Amino acid sequence: MSGRRWSSAARRVVGAAAIVLVASGCVSIPESSSVRAGRAISAKDEQPLSRNQPNGPRPGAGRKEIATGYLNAMLAFPPAPDVVRQFMTSEASADWNPQDGLVVYTASNRPRLAEKSKAVTFSARAVGSLDSRGTWTTARSAGRDIGMDFEMGRINGEWRLRNPLPGSYVDQGYFADYYQSFSLYFFDPTKRILAPDPVHMLQGDSLATSLVDDLLQGPTRRLAGAVSTSIPATASVDVAVSISRTGVAEIPLAEQVLRLSVDDRRLFAAQLVWTLRQINEIRAIVVTVDGQRVDLGVGTQIRISDLSGFDPAGLAASRQLYGLTGQGLVTVTENGTATVPGPILEPSRGARSAAVEPNARRGAVVSADGHTVTMAGMTTNDSGTTVWYSGGVDVIKPSWDIFGSLWIADNRSDGAHLYVVNDGEGRREVSAPGITGQKVHSIAVSRDGVRLAAIVGTGRDRKLVISVINRDPADPTQISMRRAHRVLTADVTTTAISSGSWVSPTSIAALVGDQGGEPEPAELGIDGAPTLVSRFPGFLPIKPIDLAAGPNEDVPTAIVDRRGALYAESVTSEWVQIGGSAAIRAPFYAG
Length: 591
Prior knowledge:
Layout: H1 8-21, H2 43-46, H3 63-73, H4 81-85, H5 90-95, E1 102-105, E2 112-115, E3 119-130, E4 136-138, E5 145-155, E6 158-161, E7 168-171, H6 172-178, E8 179-187, E9 194-202, H7 207-216, E10 242-243, E11 248-252, H8 262-276, E12 284-289, E13 292-293, E14 302-303, E15 321-325, E16 328-332, E17 337-339, H9 345-348, E18 353-356, E19 362-366, E20 373-377, E21 385-389, E22 399-400, E23 406-412, E24 415-421, E25 428-430, E26 440-445, E27 451-458, E28 461-472, E29 475-481, E30 485-486, E31 498-504, E32 507-512, E33 520-525, E34 534-535, E35 546-548, E36 558-560, E37 566-569, E38 575-578, E39 585-589
Parallel strand pairs: 1-7, 11-12
Antiparallel strand pairs: 1-3, 2-3, 3-4, 3-5, 5-6, 8-9, 10-11, 12-13, 12-14, 15-16, 15-39, 16-17, 18-19, 19-20, 20-21, 22-23, 23-24, 24-25, 26-27, 27-28, 28-29, 28-30, 31-32, 32-33, 33-34, 35-36, 36-37, 37-38
Helix pairs in contact: 7-8
């Protein structure tokens, strides 16, 4: 039985439980948790995957029946490429490679087959595709139509297909049932924190081997060059990964792993643990070379709960919910609010927005007119304030990264300008193609520091984009940006999107007015795959105008309306009001 990431509902329920269970009412969670990453509870986890084994060609089958059988054979689970080949001529069978990518077409619009004089016409609507690494690409609306004239030939009096589709084609139902989203884990350039690289894998007995094989190949094309790995370039799995009845995964590797330093072995262990902990059965891992266990710097057997300090969501990051009131910057509790002490309080009175470092030591506030950003400490031991940005036109809520850099977006007459500011340094302007020069509504740096999410566009023509951040390993505050790519989703229209925040290391929570409806919270996977798109459940008691979310699994998402009524998700997946009677605006978590 295969594992999977936490479902959005399961993750939010765990986080929201804090609101109900903490008697003091603080929406703040301890820095360690017994919650195990990568676990979801669903019907799929409780029941074995159903098998589907279509038959080969029926003797005397007509051309349309052969085409239908060929398409159905690609829906076999476990996959049965030998059955698929039975519908082809010998030449076509030899040329066809089921590994040449996977195309997913809509389940609601079943493929249509029409028989012509010399061919059978196939047509369908594509949802998206996976490449050989498992990287998802959503089909663009202009290129979703699939069309093919299946040519047939007689082989020993039986019709067979001469020109099969390249690779494999499955419907959306098959993809939802048998494929699952996972992450390969690599390190930020400083090797301080893990960064996820989303992929999609076919479930089944070879899942663990497939994940390790994929990990050993290094980052996918989307993150190549922006993350680092401690895995030798020539490393490979020797035979296959096996899982014992007690949940110990044995990973037989070639001898290259023996050449790693002790430090690199520990980092390699973290990559393996975080990648394989997504599989339900696995409780610990061991690496072997020629049958002998290898010490990876933390012992020869490593529990999947070990090495949690590399958590891509930031294990030690603050879970506190903040907001702005007439009193200034406040922490939010279940029953009320408390002003944040220290020098930050004065500039936060009347501020437009604010942001707090992941470690909650400092904060930055944007003035009411959007012209100035002021940095200050958040304890009574701190003194003084520092203007980190001035002369702005329309500065939106900034974002902190784990390296102490504050990211500032200023909307000017020629579009947004993006700046990065650090202690003792002047502001440095950064070019981010696809973000700078646009109207920018929100920015959020991922906790691992590898991606910048932004909502750009005008009116209802807004879109979510992701830009990968290149950092200098010796000085991670020195950065450059790759061209931002739009997050295209197959199931949700995001043209009225707003208030984007990281709700997990691989997904964004935002307010989305799907097809012209009222804005409501939605979770969007950063690759746009349908298995990562999920609505927040429950009746909305307010019309939200802003949203606060954090990437830690134990942080509840909060929404607020124009009156300042703030709600967070409860343990029963309902929205409950928090913050007492205070009128709260611009709620946010650290980061």
